[in-house]
Amino acid sequence: MESLFFLVVAAVAIISSILVVTCKNPINSALSLVMTFFCLATFYVMLDAPFMAATQVIVYAGAIMVLIIFVIMLLNVRVETVKRGTHAVIAGSAIGLFVLFQTVWFLMKGSMTGQVGTMTKEQIVSVGHVELIGKALFTDFLLPFEVTSVLLLAAIVGAVVLAKKKI
Amino acid sequence: MLAIENYLIVSAILFSIGTIGVLTKRNAIVIFMCVEMMLNAVNLTFIAFSRHLGNIDGQVFVFFVMTVAAAEAAVGLALMIAFFKNRESIDVEDINLLKL
Protein backbone atom coordinates (compact mmCIF):
# COMPACT_ATOMS: atom_id res chain seq x y z
CA MET A 1 0.00 0.00 0.00
CA GLU A 2 2.79 2.39 0.90
CA SER A 3 4.73 1.57 -2.26
CA LEU A 4 1.60 2.10 -4.39
CA PHE A 5 1.08 5.52 -2.78
CA PHE A 6 4.76 6.30 -3.34
CA LEU A 7 4.50 5.39 -7.02
CA VAL A 8 1.44 7.61 -7.54
CA VAL A 9 3.06 10.60 -5.82
CA ALA A 10 6.36 10.04 -7.66
CA ALA A 11 4.53 9.88 -10.99
CA VAL A 12 2.70 13.14 -10.27
CA ALA A 13 5.96 14.81 -9.18
CA ILE A 14 7.85 13.73 -12.29
CA ILE A 15 5.04 14.57 -14.73
CA SER A 16 4.56 18.03 -13.23
CA SER A 17 8.30 18.67 -13.25
CA ILE A 18 8.41 17.73 -16.95
CA LEU A 19 5.55 20.18 -17.49
CA VAL A 20 7.64 22.93 -15.83
CA VAL A 21 10.24 22.51 -18.59
CA THR A 22 7.91 21.94 -21.54
CA CYS A 23 5.17 24.54 -20.99
CA LYS A 24 5.37 27.61 -23.25
CA ASN A 25 3.60 29.92 -20.83
CA PRO A 26 5.60 30.77 -17.65
CA ILE A 27 2.41 30.85 -15.54
CA ASN A 28 1.69 27.20 -16.37
CA SER A 29 5.28 26.34 -15.50
CA ALA A 30 4.92 28.07 -12.13
CA LEU A 31 1.68 26.22 -11.30
CA SER A 32 3.26 22.88 -12.24
CA LEU A 33 6.18 23.73 -9.97
CA VAL A 34 3.75 24.29 -7.07
CA MET A 35 2.39 20.77 -7.74
CA THR A 36 5.93 19.36 -7.62
CA PHE A 37 6.54 21.10 -4.29
CA PHE A 38 3.38 19.61 -2.80
CA CYS A 39 4.46 16.13 -3.93
CA LEU A 40 7.84 16.67 -2.28
CA ALA A 41 6.08 17.73 0.92
CA THR A 42 4.18 14.42 0.77
CA PHE A 43 7.50 12.59 0.51
CA TYR A 44 8.78 14.45 3.57
CA VAL A 45 5.76 13.27 5.55
CA MET A 46 6.43 9.70 4.39
CA LEU A 47 10.03 10.10 5.62
CA ASP A 48 8.89 11.09 9.15
CA ALA A 49 9.77 14.76 8.74
CA PRO A 50 6.44 16.59 9.27
CA PHE A 51 8.01 19.92 10.24
CA MET A 52 10.06 20.03 7.04
CA ALA A 53 6.88 19.23 5.06
CA ALA A 54 5.08 22.16 6.68
CA THR A 55 8.07 24.42 5.98
CA GLN A 56 8.14 23.24 2.39
CA VAL A 57 4.49 24.14 1.86
CA ILE A 58 4.74 27.48 3.68
CA VAL A 59 8.10 28.72 2.38
CA TYR A 60 8.34 27.20 -1.10
CA ALA A 61 4.79 26.64 -2.26
CA GLY A 62 3.60 29.72 -0.38
CA ALA A 63 6.13 32.52 -0.21
CA ILE A 64 8.62 31.87 -3.03
CA MET A 65 6.07 30.79 -5.63
CA VAL A 66 3.81 33.75 -4.84
CA LEU A 67 6.82 36.02 -5.40
CA ILE A 68 7.63 34.32 -8.73
CA ILE A 69 4.03 34.44 -9.98
CA PHE A 70 3.82 38.08 -8.89
CA VAL A 71 6.91 38.92 -10.98
CA ILE A 72 5.59 36.99 -14.00
CA MET A 73 2.30 38.91 -13.79
CA LEU A 74 4.12 42.23 -13.25
CA LEU A 75 6.45 41.81 -16.22
CA ASN A 76 3.66 40.45 -18.44
CA VAL A 77 6.03 37.95 -20.03
CA ARG A 78 5.01 36.84 -23.48
CA VAL A 79 4.59 33.23 -24.46
CA GLU A 80 7.94 31.93 -25.60
CA THR A 81 8.46 32.27 -29.33
CA VAL A 82 9.59 29.49 -31.62
CA LYS A 83 12.92 28.15 -30.48
CA ARG A 84 15.99 29.27 -32.33
CA GLY A 85 19.04 27.07 -32.13
CA THR A 86 17.72 23.52 -31.68
CA HIS A 87 21.34 22.40 -31.37
CA ALA A 88 21.45 24.06 -27.94
CA VAL A 89 18.29 22.19 -26.92
CA ILE A 90 19.70 18.84 -28.07
CA ALA A 91 23.03 19.47 -26.31
CA GLY A 92 21.32 20.57 -23.09
CA SER A 93 19.06 17.51 -23.08
CA ALA A 94 22.06 15.27 -23.71
CA ILE A 95 23.91 16.78 -20.74
CA GLY A 96 20.82 16.40 -18.54
CA LEU A 97 20.35 12.77 -19.53
CA PHE A 98 24.04 12.17 -18.87
CA VAL A 99 23.63 13.59 -15.36
CA LEU A 100 20.65 11.25 -14.80
CA PHE A 101 22.56 8.24 -16.10
CA GLN A 102 25.56 9.06 -13.93
CA THR A 103 23.58 9.52 -10.71
CA VAL A 104 21.52 6.34 -11.20
CA TRP A 105 24.63 4.37 -12.12
CA PHE A 106 26.48 5.43 -8.97
CA LEU A 107 23.34 4.74 -6.96
CA MET A 108 23.09 1.18 -8.28
CA LYS A 109 26.83 0.56 -7.95
CA GLY A 110 27.28 1.63 -4.32
CA SER A 111 25.71 0.52 -1.09
CA MET A 112 24.31 2.77 1.63
CA THR A 113 26.69 2.80 4.54
CA GLY A 114 27.44 5.39 7.16
CA GLN A 115 27.43 6.09 10.83
CA VAL A 116 23.94 5.59 12.20
CA GLY A 117 22.73 8.42 14.44
CA THR A 118 20.41 8.53 17.38
CA MET A 119 17.17 9.79 15.79
CA THR A 120 14.79 6.87 15.76
CA LYS A 121 11.10 6.90 14.90
CA GLU A 122 10.18 6.32 18.55
CA GLN A 123 12.21 9.37 19.53
CA ILE A 124 10.45 11.51 16.90
CA VAL A 125 7.09 10.36 18.23
CA SER A 126 7.92 10.83 21.92
CA VAL A 127 10.04 14.01 21.86
CA GLY A 128 8.55 15.64 18.78
CA HIS A 129 10.09 16.58 15.47
CA VAL A 130 10.10 20.35 16.00
CA GLU A 131 11.85 19.94 19.35
CA LEU A 132 14.57 17.75 17.82
CA ILE A 133 15.19 20.25 14.98
CA GLY A 134 15.21 23.19 17.37
CA LYS A 135 17.66 21.48 19.70
CA ALA A 136 20.05 20.71 16.85
CA LEU A 137 19.65 24.22 15.43
CA PHE A 138 20.39 26.06 18.67
CA THR A 139 23.22 23.85 19.94
CA ASP A 140 25.29 22.26 17.17
CA PHE A 141 24.33 24.68 14.41
CA LEU A 142 24.17 27.97 16.30
CA LEU A 143 26.88 29.74 14.27
CA PRO A 144 25.42 28.77 10.84
CA PHE A 145 22.03 29.87 12.13
CA GLU A 146 23.38 33.32 12.99
CA VAL A 147 25.19 33.54 9.63
CA THR A 148 21.83 32.80 7.99
CA SER A 149 20.38 35.94 9.56
CA VAL A 150 23.28 38.02 8.15
CA LEU A 151 22.63 36.45 4.72
CA LEU A 152 18.95 37.39 4.85
CA LEU A 153 19.85 40.95 5.87
CA ALA A 154 22.26 41.19 2.92
CA ALA A 155 19.53 39.90 0.58
CA ILE A 156 17.04 42.48 1.88
CA VAL A 157 19.55 45.32 1.43
CA GLY A 158 20.44 44.06 -2.05
CA ALA A 159 16.81 43.85 -3.15
CA VAL A 160 16.12 47.39 -1.86
CA VAL A 161 19.19 48.81 -3.66
CA LEU A 162 18.25 47.06 -6.90
CA ALA A 163 14.67 48.26 -6.73
CA LYS A 164 15.64 51.84 -5.89
CA LYS A 165 18.61 52.80 -8.04
CA LYS A 166 18.63 53.33 -11.74
CA ILE A 167 20.96 50.62 -12.97
CA MET B 1 9.29 2.17 5.33
CA LEU B 2 10.31 2.10 1.70
CA ALA B 3 13.95 1.59 0.72
CA ILE B 4 15.99 4.76 0.41
CA GLU B 5 16.89 3.99 -3.23
CA ASN B 6 13.34 4.81 -4.36
CA TYR B 7 13.55 8.34 -3.00
CA LEU B 8 17.07 8.81 -4.37
CA ILE B 9 15.98 7.79 -7.88
CA VAL B 10 13.05 10.23 -7.81
CA SER B 11 15.46 12.90 -6.60
CA ALA B 12 17.93 12.11 -9.42
CA ILE B 13 15.15 12.33 -12.02
CA LEU B 14 13.94 15.70 -10.68
CA PHE B 15 17.52 17.03 -10.61
CA SER B 16 18.12 15.96 -14.22
CA ILE B 17 14.89 17.56 -15.43
CA GLY B 18 15.94 20.75 -13.64
CA THR B 19 19.34 20.58 -15.35
CA ILE B 20 17.71 20.18 -18.77
CA GLY B 21 15.47 23.17 -18.03
CA VAL B 22 18.38 25.39 -16.97
CA LEU B 23 20.38 24.48 -20.07
CA THR B 24 17.63 24.70 -22.69
CA LYS B 25 15.10 27.38 -21.65
CA ARG B 26 15.57 31.01 -22.66
CA ASN B 27 13.15 32.74 -20.30
CA ALA B 28 15.09 33.86 -17.22
CA ILE B 29 12.18 33.24 -14.82
CA VAL B 30 11.71 29.66 -16.06
CA ILE B 31 15.46 29.06 -15.61
CA PHE B 32 15.08 30.40 -12.07
CA MET B 33 12.21 27.99 -11.39
CA CYS B 34 14.30 25.09 -12.69
CA VAL B 35 17.09 26.05 -10.26
CA GLU B 36 14.51 25.92 -7.45
CA MET B 37 13.53 22.44 -8.62
CA MET B 38 17.16 21.28 -8.48
CA LEU B 39 17.47 22.65 -4.94
CA ASN B 40 14.34 20.73 -3.97
CA ALA B 41 15.68 17.50 -5.45
CA VAL B 42 18.77 17.86 -3.26
CA ASN B 43 16.53 18.58 -0.24
CA LEU B 44 14.72 15.28 -0.85
CA THR B 45 18.08 13.49 -0.86
CA PHE B 46 19.05 15.17 2.41
CA ILE B 47 15.83 14.13 4.15
CA ALA B 48 15.94 10.58 2.77
CA PHE B 49 19.48 10.10 4.08
CA SER B 50 18.54 11.75 7.38
CA ARG B 51 15.77 9.19 7.85
CA HIS B 52 17.93 6.31 6.67
CA LEU B 53 20.83 7.11 8.99
CA GLY B 54 18.71 8.33 11.91
CA ASN B 55 20.54 11.65 12.00
CA ILE B 56 18.88 15.06 12.32
CA ASP B 57 21.72 17.03 10.65
CA GLY B 58 20.38 16.51 7.12
CA GLN B 59 17.09 18.17 8.02
CA VAL B 60 18.92 21.16 9.52
CA PHE B 61 20.78 21.51 6.20
CA VAL B 62 17.43 21.50 4.37
CA PHE B 63 16.47 24.43 6.59
CA PHE B 64 19.59 26.33 5.47
CA VAL B 65 18.99 25.48 1.80
CA MET B 66 15.48 26.92 2.09
CA THR B 67 16.89 30.12 3.60
CA VAL B 68 19.41 30.52 0.78
CA ALA B 69 16.67 29.86 -1.78
CA ALA B 70 14.50 32.57 -0.24
CA ALA B 71 17.39 35.08 -0.32
CA GLU B 72 18.12 34.07 -3.91
CA ALA B 73 14.48 34.58 -4.88
CA ALA B 74 14.43 38.09 -3.41
CA VAL B 75 17.66 39.24 -5.11
CA GLY B 76 17.17 37.34 -8.37
CA LEU B 77 13.66 38.61 -9.00
CA ALA B 78 14.76 42.19 -8.15
CA LEU B 79 17.55 41.80 -10.72
CA MET B 80 15.05 40.59 -13.33
CA ILE B 81 12.76 43.54 -12.70
CA ALA B 82 15.74 45.96 -12.97
CA PHE B 83 16.82 44.29 -16.23
CA PHE B 84 13.29 44.37 -17.63
CA LYS B 85 13.06 48.11 -16.91
CA ASN B 86 16.06 48.73 -19.18
CA ARG B 87 15.66 46.15 -21.95
CA GLU B 88 11.91 45.32 -22.04
CA SER B 89 12.84 41.63 -22.11
CA ILE B 90 13.97 38.84 -19.80
CA ASP B 91 15.31 36.59 -22.53
CA VAL B 92 18.73 35.31 -21.45
CA GLU B 93 20.12 35.99 -24.93
CA ASP B 94 19.55 39.70 -24.33
CA ILE B 95 21.55 39.64 -21.09
CA ASN B 96 24.89 40.50 -22.70
CA LEU B 97 26.00 43.77 -21.10
CA LEU B 98 29.28 42.20 -19.91
CA LYS B 99 30.08 40.75 -23.33
CA LEU B 100 33.35 41.94 -24.87
UniProtKB/TrEMBL annotation, chain A:
Keywords: Cell membrane, Membrane, NAD, Quinone, Transmembrane, Transmembrane helix
Protein location: Cell membrane
Gene Ontology CC annotation, any one: plasma membrane
Topology term for the membrane: Multi-pass membrane protein
Transmembrane segments: 6-23, 30-47, 53-75, 87-108, 141-163
GO molecular function annotations of the record: NADH dehydrogenase (ubiquinone) activity; quinone binding
Entry EC number(s): 7.1.1.-
Pfam families given in the database record: Oxidored_q3
Source superkingdom: Bacteria
Gene3D superfamilies with a match to the protein in the record: NADH-ubiquinone/plastoquinone oxidoreductase chain 6, subunit NuoJ
Catalysed reactions, as listed in the record: a quinone + NADH + 5 H(+)(in) = a quinol + NAD(+) + 4 H(+)(out)
Keyword check for Glycosyltransferase: no
InterPro entries, sorted: NADH_UbQ/plastoQ_OxRdtase_su6, Nuo/plastoQ_OxRdtase_6_NuoJ
Class of the enzyme per the UniProt entry, highest EC level: translocase
Entry keyword Phosphoprotein: no
Cited function: NDH-1 shuttles electrons from NADH, via FMN and iron-sulfur (Fe-S) centers, to quinones in the respiratory chain. Couples the redox reaction to proton translocation (for every two electrons transferred, four hydrogen ions are translocated across the cytoplasmic membrane), and thus conserves the redox energy in a proton gradient.
PANTHER family to which the protein is assigned, alphabetical: NADH-UBIQUINONE OXIDOREDUCTASE CHAIN 6
Family according to the record: Belongs to the complex I subunit 6 family.
Protein name: NADH-quinone oxidoreductase subunit J
Automatic annotation (TrEMBL), chain B:
Pfam families for the chain: Oxidored_q2 (PF00420)
Annotated GO MF terms: NADH dehydrogenase (quinone) (non-electrogenic) activity; quinone binding
Coiled-coil segments on the chain, per record: none
UniProt similarity note: Belongs to the complex I subunit 4L family.
NCBIfam families in UniProt: PRK05715.1-2 (NF004320), PRK05715.1-3 (NF004321), PRK05715.1-5 (NF004323)
Subunit: NDH-1 is composed of 14 different subunits. Subunits NuoA, H, J, K, L, M, N constitute the membrane sector of the complex.
Protein name as catalogued: NADH-quinone oxidoreductase subunit K
Organism encoding this protein: Geomonas terrae
